[in-house]
Amino acid sequence: MDRSSGVPAFRQVAADLRERIVAGEYEPGARLPSERELVDNYGVSRPTIRDAIDLLRAEGRVDAVRGVGVFVRPPTQIERLARSRLSRAARAENKGAFMADAAAKGFTPSSSVKIRFEPADERVAGLLGIEPGTEVTVRDRVMRANGLVVQLAVSRLPRELTRGTVIEEVDTGPGGAYARLEEAGHAIGHYVEDVGSRMPSPEEASTLQLAEGVPVITVTRIAYRQDGLPLEMNDMTLPADRYRLTYEWAAE
Amino acid sequence: MDRSSGVPAFRQVAADLRERIVAGEYEPGARLPSERELVDNYGVSRPTIRDAIDLLRAEGRVDAVRGVGVFVRPPTQIERLARSRLSRAARAENKGAFMADAAAKGFTPSSSVKIRFEPADERVAGLLGIEPGTEVTVRDRVMRANGLVVQLAVSRLPRELTRGTVIEEVDTGPGGAYARLEEAGHAIGHYVEDVGSRMPSPEEASTLQLAEGVPVITVTRIAYRQDGLPLEMNDMTLPADRYRLTYEWAAE
DNA sequence: GGGGGGAACTGGTCAAGACAAGCTGACATG
DNA sequence: CATGTCAGCTTGTCTTGACCAGTTCCCCCC
């Protein structure tokens, strides 16, 4: 502790704890000394210790459990979401990309869907190449693996494309909505995915059961017909600590 | 303020401020009432107000400036990093993917490189398909646009592939390291990118001049020779508020 | 009129104390 | 031996109070 360095005390404490964590002094899953012990160790007040721990929590390094202690967060298991899951071959036998992906990893996947119809706002209209206000079919999905929510997905299609098809039903049948579109003569030409990241809203954090300091990855996928017409857009929200996305392409 | 709801006061204050922000009552760039004013408005103590504001800062919604006030963070401008920048055609005329990308947007790109040689650790060895301990060439780059740091990139190649080439020099010449590899007979077959996200370390936050509550996007790209041999791996770190990644592929 | 100084704001840090709420384990009781 | 209770630990929340440090702007002085 250097009180004359100009660095706030709570940041010095946080830096020291962080060092000990990465150095392995506190192993993954291990409990840190209690706040009151840290008060004695560092010679600062409890709010200062709490400020330091809050910093580490915002960085996603530790979790605090009331009545128990503060623990070093263990490294998280990694899922993969490969774009090859969207191939027609993969669609032939299963219910869709997510179900296939999860099942392949030994998870028990499940998903609940809510369907609604609404006029397209400006963003949706722009991405789907339609007039704002045009009716779109919205499939709002919550995906779970072993009961744990792992992904939110909001899919939107021009209603014109879905009227009278099972895409407006909860169960879209084998291969999912993409398979139904192709059967209806809308062969998919290419996909575009737009990937970003941000901190979750409180609602997202609780829905996805996110620990503190964990961002979400946002993916917007658009599926285009072979003539370039946008068929579907899909806004996905993924917990960043449970997913990595893999993309692969040939050099040109 | 409902003191009997069980919801902590600072969360109620944060929720109320958040609502007003998304409702537009406090416009982007606008100043929130000072902490002491909020103390009067909500009838709670200042640390409670500060806890609420800290929450909004961790969410990336507001920025605090000492001596001035707390401001609603304006929506961030968006860059794009397209994979098509890696095509041979694009390499023909310029110095590399990043330089081309930035120049195309009217930025003045610059980058500083540090080169070193080190034995491969387990992860690097695994990804490059070599034995741990094998010497690799490391190109550690800091990329800037108009002086602002916008990307960190650590590129590693088996030293065997770079010995005697300008890849071990600061300036790799037109088209960058990939062009030199191809000239040396290592035609690139395909690329794989692995995308994730997390909160930055304090060092990353200061190097990338990140505001609070802004995650980083991590991309690990591996370039493979046409026979499948890994040629290069590149660990990139991007500020999530300044980048979105775009991937595009044909349906199969 | 121009410049310097300072008052009055702003957020940043820290202390000491109190009580609430959740968990664990020892201990008494059946 | 099984079970339920409770003491004693943990973190969570909130208060009052104080001082520091950066910014802005007005006012006085030159």
From TrEMBL, chains A, B:
Signal peptide bounds: none
GO MF term list: DNA binding; DNA-binding transcription factor activity
GO biological process: negative regulation of DNA-templated transcription
Keywords carried by this UniProt record: DNA-binding, Transcription, Transcription regulation
One Pfam family matching this protein: UTRA
PANTHER family: GNTR-FAMILY TRANSCRIPTIONAL REGULATOR, MANNOSYL-D-GLYCERATE TRANSPORT/METABOLISM SYSTEM REPRESSOR MNGR-RELATED
Name of the protein described by the UniProt record: Transcriptional regulator
Species whose genome carries this gene: Prauserella muralis
